[in-house]
Structures are given as C-alpha cells and as structure tokens.
Amino acid sequence: MTALVIAEHDNARLKGTTLNTVTAALACGSDVHILVAGHNASDAAEAAAGIVGVAKVIRADSEAFAHGLAENVAAQVVALAGDYSHILFPATASGKNIAPRVAAVLDAGQISEVTKIHGTDTFERPIYAGNAIATVQSLTEKNVITVRTTGFDPAAATGGSAAIEQIATVPASSKSTFVSAELVKSDRPELTAAKVIVSGGRALGSSEKFIAIMTPLADKLGAAIGASRAAVDAGYAANDLQVGQTGKIVAPQLYIAAGISGAIQHLAGMKDSKVIVAINKDPEAPIFSVADYGLEADLFTAVPELTKAL
Ligand code: FAD
User: Fold this and answer.
1) In sequence order, which ranges of the chain are alpha helices (DSSP H)?
2) Distance, CA of 26 to CA of 245 (rounded, Å)
3) Which domains does the chain have, with CATH numbers?
4) Closest ligand 1 atom, CA of 231?
5) Which protein residue's CA is at the shortest distance from atom 22 of ligand 1?
6) Which residues contact ligand 1 via a Cβ below 6 A?
7) If we measure between CA atoms, which residue out of 130, 106, 142, 109 comes closest to residue 3?
8) Residue 229 alpha carbon to ligand 1 centre in Å
C-alpha cells in the first residue's frame, strides 16, 4: 500500500503543512511518495526529498502548475492515482480546492479534515465545529483525504534522501487561467505556522485601536496576529487574519486572545493551541473555559501593561 502526498509549495520552498501531511500519510501506508507539481520547482522537490519517511518524490514540472491552479493539479493527481491507495492533501485553501475534484473523478470517498488515523480505512474527523469527533470508515478502494495539519506533528524536514523522479505532465486544462495574485507581504510569521499568535476581537473597537494595541504585543513576542470574525467583519482586521471555523485553524504554542468572547466557531479554530491566555473583562466569557490562564481585565489597560512588562 502506498500513499501519495500532494506537496504545497511556492516552487522554491515547501510549506510547513506538507510535513504534517507526510506524518498522516505514514500512518496510512507503508510507503509515502510526494508529488511536487510546479514550475521550475527543483528547490521544492529537493526539499521534499529531504523529508524523513518519504520514499520517492515525483516531480511534475510545467508552466501549467506555476500557480497551483486546481484544475491542472487535479488532472495530474488523477493521472497518477492508479498506483496509490491513499491520496493526501493538507486541509488548506489549496488542498480543499483540489481534493474534491480528484475524489469526484476517481469516484472515491473523500474524508475531510482528518485528525487521527486508526488504520488503512478508518479515520477520525471533527464535526459540528469540533463539538463532536466522528470515526468514519471508508468503503472505497481509494481514499482521498484532507489532513487537518494541527492534528499531526510535522515530519522531520531534513535527514531523508528520497529519489526524485521527473514525470511527463498532463496538458493544461482550458477551464481556468491564471490572471494575477495580490499577496500581502509581511515580516510576521504566517498564521498557520506561527508558534505564538496574539488575537484580537470585537472589543478592540476600530482598526486603529486594533493596530495600536495588538501590534506592539505581537512585535515583542515575534507573533502572528489573528482576529475573531466579528473583528474582521467590522473591518478592524484583514480577512486573512480570521481564526476559526470559517477562518484558519491554528495550534500554536501560545495563543493570546484579547477581547474575544470564545464563540464555538472561534474555539473551533484555536482550542488545540498548547497554552491559551484569555484577556476579557467579562468573567462569564466562554473563552475562559478553554483558557490555561485567564485575566479578567480591560484589555486597553492589560495588553499595554503586558507589552511593557515583556
Ligand atoms: P463578541 O462575541 O462580541 O465578544 C467580544 C468580547 O470582548 C466579549 O466577551 C466582551 O466581554 C469582551 N470585551 C469587551 N470590551 C472589552 C474590554 N475593554 N476588555 C476586555 N474584554 C472586553 N467567529 C470567529 O471568530 N471565527 C470564525 O471562523 C467564525 N465562523 C463562523 C461561522 C458561522 C457559520 C457563524 C454563524 C459564526 C461564525 N463566527 C466565527 C462568529 C462567532 O459566532 C462570533 O460571533 C464571533 O467569534 C464573535 O467575535 P468576538 O468574540 O470578537 O466578539
């Protein structure tokens, strides 16, 4: 039985989520191969070859894969699928875009957001915004899986020495073309990969106050900045900072929530964080039920004091 991991990368570097997906794949199959579908992505392929536990890197190089268009990558995965019992993607925006296309063409059951693997066909996944865990058994020959990366430790990025095989690529799909990408450039760590996250909620009151209060704390801690959906919807923080059921799923070493009530949809995105600190002036706020450290205080006093003390 062999599992295929679809690498997430920017042609030069592998994204960290690929490492967690390899760990999940190792629990599914005896051999793990990685597909690096990209353009001039030899560096990403080299990096994949170094991951401990990976037996083979399959490199598909074509301009059609330069921007990771789902239609093109899905067609390449389908072309390779015959050799694999398990095909795994990180449950990121990109993985969630490609996996269903592959599952549909293969007539395979898709198992989404897997957090634990019990065997070759039995998996755990959260349902109802993480309030219940379902154990599901797949009955199809091929298993197309998206992996909730916070559920698996990353595989060691170096120390492996897998062979790299270059394969013939499938033609580009005519259904989509790349037009442009607008990427936010930031020196901060990426939210889903950050070890420390400071997150602000509706209580911040405006984007000016959000920046004035949360940024100095994030700077002191070298942290990524997150936000509740209420803060995002109100325009206090950018869309891509949203943590939660309809935002990003994170599990940093330290998560500091300031002025966030702790609605289940927010908790669904951060409750697996190692240490949770909540600052809220309402002692009844549900965030305190998941917090390791709770500070009942006005954030406009407490956060600057904390920043100063650091
Ligand atoms: P509020 O609930 O308004 O809480 C503000 C908190 O700040 C309160 O607890 C208050 O006591 C405290 N506070 C006020 N002033 C101060 C002060 N000066 N100092 C300290 N504390 C103060 N939400 C998400 O976050 N992420 C998601 O992905 C998400 N997805 C959703 C999906 C669906 C389908 C639905 C229906 C909802 C979703 N939500 C999500 C919204 C969620 O239900 C909540 O509305 C949202 O999380 C509330 O954000 P908040 O905690 O910032 O605001």
Assistant:
1) 17-28, 42-49, 70-80, 93-106, 207-221, 229-233, 264-270, 299-309
2) 27
3) 2-166 (3.40.50.620), 191-309 (3.40.50.1220)
4) 52
5) 259
6) 201-203, 228-231, 242-247, 259-261, 263, 265-266, 269, 279-282, 285, 298-300
7) 142
8) 7
Residue of 202, 242, 270 to test ligand 1 pocket, by largest number of atoms within 8 Å of CB? 202
Nearest to 109 by CA among 83, 73, 74, 140: 140
* DSSP for 13-53, written as a single string: SB-THHHHHHHHHHHH-SEEEEEEEESS-HHHHHHHHTSTT
| Averages of pLDDT over each 10 residues, the chain, 310 residues | 96 95 93 97 97 98 96 98 96 96 96 96 92 94 95 96 97 93 84 94 98 97 97 96 94 97 96 96 97 98 97
- Bridge-based pairing of strands 132-137 and 86-90 is unpaired
Can you give the pLDDT at residue 182? Answer: 85
Give pTM, 2 decimals. 0.87
In this structure, the strands spanning 86-90 and 2-6 are parallel
CA of 58 to the centre of ligand 1 (A): 44
Which residue of 209, 240, 245, 250 sits with most ligand 1 atoms within 8 Å of its CB, as the best mutation to test the pocket? 245
- The span from the CA of 126 to the CA of 65, in Å, is 31
